[in-house]
Amino acid sequence: MITRKVRKWEKLPGKNTFCCDGRVMMARQKGIFYLTLFLIIGTCSLFFAFECPYLAVHLSPAIPVFAVLLFLFVMAMLLRTSFSDPGVLPRALPEEANFIEMEIEAANGNVPSGQRAPPRIRNVQINNQIVKLKYCYTCKIFRPPRASHCSICDNCVDRFDHHCPWVGNCVGKRNYRYFYLFTLTLSLLTIYIFAFNIVHVVMRSVDQGFLNTLKETPGELTVLEVLVCFFTLWSMVGLTGFHTYLISLNQTTNEDIKGSWSGKNRGQNPYSHKNIIKNCCEVLCGPTYPSVLDRRGLMQEDSPAAANSEGPCSFDNPVAQTTKTTAPLIPNEHTPDDVKLSIAAEKSSGPKDDQPPAAMLPPLASPETDAETSI
Amino acid sequence: MATEFHNLQDMQHTASLVTKVFIQRDYSEGTVCRFQTKFPAELDNRIERALLEQTVKTLNSYYVEAEKVGGQSYLEGCLACATAYIVFLCMETRYEKVLKKISGYIQEQNEKIYAPRGLLLTDPIERGMRVLEISVFEDRGSSGSSPSSSMSSCSTAR
């Protein structure tokens, strides 16, 4: 028997990439994140190299100092948003998944063959509002309120806001405040650089004329920076304003897009405290939730050949079974023999499996839809 | 139905798992972490209702303490923001402190109350804070010779 200790992140299902031995967690596609880094670092480097010396001498040395502090804060917020666990909910282990399946079957009773099974929904009452909890076929759980399944990362995320390609990660409960601070401070940084570039051009033009300023080296780069800042500014200020609006109402982008608490449901958001200050405080100054994914914990891993011969005790750590939960009732080469027998016994009595419901149900109710919400 | 488990290790090594009971989250007060105090029928003859209820209520009060939005959480949030959240690399947050307390509490409850009855609580954080898992082990006092349960999966608590 060959067992080796592995970190739990190596066995986590879902489409995330991990770095630094599980300390860093991101989505798979990171191209746009690198672009974000390049734009921010590139523009700021040009500003520090070409405009700051002139401004420090002719105006005040405080200008570059403040720019450096702002830049460092922006980078810290960006990296914090990108690298942290957004609030991923781990998938149900087989026993929990079976327990839920049995509860669902008990609730639905006997569905005659050929008829579609009713959708798996649980109703809960939150602050006098009925909220529907949907069942996630991938994670095998009833999603908590405000959680949603991100199809890009293939995880259920708590208080799912949206998947942001610019930061290369989902934005959820754990990193929403960092994301908001990133957009806010990046807006400020963009406005700051934009304004002082204009000041720089104006001051140089006063000295040597506008056209001469543009022809010389610092002038061209200033124009480039102004252009980058101009386009960034509108999108960032708009995005910050949008998220400020969402925070004041205690809504997520997902809920806003789906129109959960607007239109005829306006004013019925059960999560809102009906007070802007309280809503802002809860989102921005609330407790810092810990990650429930134990990424750096150690676990035993058995080689597949050993798993079949060892029998039941080969899966000696429940987390090892998370990789199997996408199809718990379908035996594969890793399933121990006696579990295969029990599955075969279950199958002969005609239980539901993952694949048939997906085929039977119409597309709207299919398991994998993009960013389903709990409403 | 006296059981003969002397301690947690004894139970884990010698007993076989019969089933697992899951106490679900109670969302009636929002997204705050709270578990249902409804007593599961499967544990009817294994443990007294009052004891389990007391455990769940204490756990719920710990989570309320951890997630309280008040003076201390504002202070922590503002201080952390002012330092660009670098302070979290060296400081333990209030939530993490409470989680440690919870872990100690569950360990203590397992040793004192649940293991002698052939049960084992699993810390909810290990199940994504979704369920409170109670493993039900075979009742050696009442069953026959060899452990022969239909669920042949083995499980460790930690």
Automatic annotation (TrEMBL), chain A:
Reactions that this protein is recorded to catalyse: L-cysteinyl-[protein] + hexadecanoyl-CoA = S-hexadecanoyl-L-cysteinyl-[protein] + CoA
Enzyme Commission numbers on file: 2.3.1.225
Annotated signal sequence range: none
Region described as Disordered: spans on this chain: 302-375
Residue runs in coiled coils: none
Transmembrane segments: 32-50, 62-79, 178-203, 223-242
InterPro entries associated with the record: Palmitoyltrfase_DHHC, PFA4/ZDH16/20/ERF2-like
Name under which the protein is recorded: Palmitoyltransferase
Biased composition (Low complexity): 356-367
Main location: endoplasmic reticulum
Single GO cellular component term: endoplasmic reticulum membrane
Family: Belongs to the DHHC palmitoyltransferase family. ERF2/ZDHHC9 subfamily.
UniProt keyword annotation of Cytoplasm present: no
Main EC class the enzyme belongs to: transferase
PROSITE patterns, alphabetized: DHHC
Residue ranges annotated for the Palmitoyltransferase DHHC domain, each copy included: 132-258
Keyword terms: Acyltransferase, Endoplasmic reticulum, Golgi apparatus, Lipoprotein, Membrane, Palmitate, Transferase, Transmembrane, Transmembrane helix
Membrane topology: Multi-pass membrane protein
GO molecular function terms noted in the UniProt entry: protein-cysteine S-palmitoyltransferase activity
GO biological process: protein targeting to membrane
Compartment(s): Endoplasmic reticulum membrane; Golgi apparatus membrane
UniProtKB/TrEMBL annotation, chain B:
Cellular component terms (Gene Ontology): Golgi membrane; palmitoyltransferase complex
InterPro entries in UniProt: Golgin_A_7/ERF4, Ras_palmitoyltransferase
Domain Golgin subfamily A member 7/ERF4, first and last residues per copy: 21-133
Biased composition (Low complexity): 142-158
Region annotation (Disordered) ranges: 139-158
Pfam families the record matches: Erf4
GO biological process, one term: protein targeting to membrane
Keywords assigned by UniProt, alphabetized: Membrane
Superkingdom classification of source: Eukaryota
Chief localisation class: Golgi
Membrane topology: Lipid-anchor
Location within or outside the cell: Golgi apparatus membrane
Family: Belongs to the ERF4 family.
Name this polypeptide is given: Golgin subfamily A member 7/ERF4 domain-containing protein
Organism: Poecilia mexicana
